[in-house]
Amino acid sequence: xxxxxxxxxxxxxxxxxxxxxxxxxxxxxxxxxxxxxxxxxxxxxxxxxxxxxxxxxxxxxxxxxxxxxxxxxxxxxxxxxxxxxxxxxxxxxxxxxxxxxxxxxxxxxxxxxxxxxxxxxxxxxxxxxxxxxxxxxxxxxxxxxxxxxxxxxxxxxxxxxxxxxxxxxxxxxxxxxxxxxxxxxxxxxxxxxxxxxxxxxxxxxxxxxxxxxxxxxxxxxxxxxxxxxxxxxxxxxxxxxxxxxxxxxxxxxxxxxxxxxxxxxxxxxxxxxxxxxxxxxxxxxxxxxxxxxxxxxxxxxxxxxxxxxxxxxxxxxxxxxxxxxxxxxxxxxxxxxxxxxxxxxxxxxxxxxxxxxxxxxxxxxxxxxxxx
Amino acid sequence: xxxxxxxxxxxxxxxxxxxxxxxxxxxxxxxxxxxxxxxxxxxxxxxxxxxxxxxxxxxxxxxxxxxxxxxxxxxxxxxxxxxxxxxxxxxxxxxxxxxxxxxxxxxxxxxxxxxxxxxxxxxxxxxxxxxxxxxxxxxxxxxxxxxxxxxxxxxxxxxxxxxxxxxxxxxxxxxxxxxxxxxxxxxxxxxxxxxxxxxxxxxxxxxxxxxxxxxxxxxxxxxxxxxxxxxxxxxxxxxxxxxxxxxxxxxxxxxxxxxxxxxxxxxxxxxxxxxxxxxxxxxxxxxxxxxxxxxxxxxxxxxxxxxxxxxxxxxxxxxxxxxxxxxxxxxxxxxxxxxxxxxxxxxxxxxxxxxxxxxxxxxxxxxxxxxxxxxxx
Lengths: 372, 377
Fold this sequence. Notes:
The complex is a heterodimer of chains A (372) and B (377).
Chain A: H1 2-18, H2 20-42, E1 48-54, H3 59-70, E2 74-80, H4 83-91, E3 97-101, H5 105-112, E4 114-122, H6 126-151, E5 161-169, H7 176-207, H8 209-215, H9 220-248, H10 258-282, H11 286-303, H12 315-321, H13 325-339, H14 343-371
Parallel strand pairs in A: 1-2, 1-3
Antiparallel strand pairs in A: 3-4
Helix pairs in contact in A: 1-9, 2-7, 2-9, 7-9, 7-10, 7-11, 7-13, 9-10, 10-13, 10-14, 13-14
Chain B: H1 3-19, H2 21-28, H3 30-42, E1 50-55, H4 60-71, E2 76-79, H5 84-92, E3 98-102, H6 106-111, E4 115-123, H7 127-155, E5 165-173, H8 180-192, H9 195-210, H10 212-217, H11 223-252, H12 261-285, H13 289-306, H14 319-327, H15 329-343, H16 347-376
Parallel strand pairs in B: 1-2, 1-3
Antiparallel strand pairs in B: 3-4
Helix pairs in contact in B: 1-11, 2-9, 3-8, 3-11, 8-13, 8-15, 9-12, 9-13, 11-12, 11-16, 12-13, 12-15, 12-16, 15-16
């Protein structure tokens, strides 16, 4: 049994090695993704390019602009003279926010202690707009406090105030790489290995060589195990690759137990194996297998909490997400890597993953036998 | 270049796309499918992010603070843990993404005219959500502090019937209700329309693997005619998909469309010209379908989401990333799509992006024709 399985594995390894360019791309793909996700995401929503229209041009208005600049949120790149110009900059996307200080701002502040300004936000970028909204308000409020203190001539320290002490847990520097890289590890375990598994079987089907394999005394289990083993090794290798680059290049801390991570990673690989095999029983050409996996995996990625917090999604999508194994894997990988969580916290996620592995493998195996 | 020969290739390729249902579905329907999935998953309303509140002070003022925070509607107060350990476990189990802790002495500090402090804890694993929660809580706290300051002054006999300060009048352009879904849809459409290029790359790589390309090369058809003849049917089916996506965006998601629809189709054709020629170039170089898929995803799909300015403003990227972003056709197409849907722009402001796409397309097609010759010579 083992001898026959090994023979298939050897055949598959030879097949992989004969096309070194494809092999190279398989290894390079995670690195490229890592660089892409790691670096783009570190920009976060840094400084927001902002345009200022100061129609007042007084000491007070300049003070307000300085307060916006000092907020570490708005990057004041442009000063314009008319609202039309401001509109053009925001239309063209060069500026995402605009401060309009009307004439009489300074005079009204001195006379009535109250003045208004307008703040324009480009609502076409929702990821930015809502945060910009709060940040703009915070600056105006802080400036108001300064004014009150000045008007009544009171010292800042002698008056009540509330000091917010922020604490960021698990990822103190709020580095996106720390968020993305564990996610990417989960994605590689799930997506890449599923595609590789499906393709390895379907290729034989497409080329008609599967019939030859069937007429040999091989059992279907031996065939499957023998064929997918090399790809599982490639996936594990990729996982280590991402782990190492993540730790040594991006400085992602591994707070939990690496062995637990690998053990649960293997469990996830079994799930991918099941899904990949299942796909291979449906698809008859490589192209079909690719499309099928693709269609399955894209919603997987987006509905699993990889990018967006699940609890903020519509209820229906949250229900769907329970059927997506990547969801559990993400909680596991992020939990171990960032929060140092152990099995006492993650057991339910691991159990869900195990259930998926059993169901998918059983389903795939029964279909596979029938197809043969 | 012979028009008749090019046309016959176009006809053959159109037949091919139509007959090969999967490719046709992938080119035309898959973007719509993805639009539906992403439309719902991205229009996440951050205000539904759960937070936990821990009140050690149990005073009138702390309750005012917490009730006020709960009623802002910007955050969803879901847990009122009894102690720190419970709060910790809520965060650890990802049930809450942020927490506010009010220490004992909060009220007495404020009444005594001292500065009181409170602790805001955010789960930093997802920096975007964390940032958001932090900004909201900070803004709310500052507003309340201002209110309390006013009341204290009043108690001290300082007349302030009208609040001193700066009144911020918010105007959100293009998406005044700030319904996230409107803002997202045009950008998502631009990103998912990278799919036709993925499909074309795969189909061409498949043809290469099967060897049917050789058969065509043996005919008197020239390389440029062959490539253009293959390109045009894909551009046309891409346009069909662009129209479908726009319809779903407008009628299903209710996104506004303020520009000219004809211009949308024209500039979409421009975009498909750029991406599909890039797909063709990839398929010339890749050794297998597997490799073609890896490359296509890496070039069309992920950058479409992360580099295109869909999530992260390009202006705040590093110079290196900025350059890469501008080299991606999707980046320009996202700007065009947002401009047409939300801003109602016309060619007067959109021409630089249209020109960039045209230059990319022409350049890449030229390279594809040249390398194609060499590769098969």
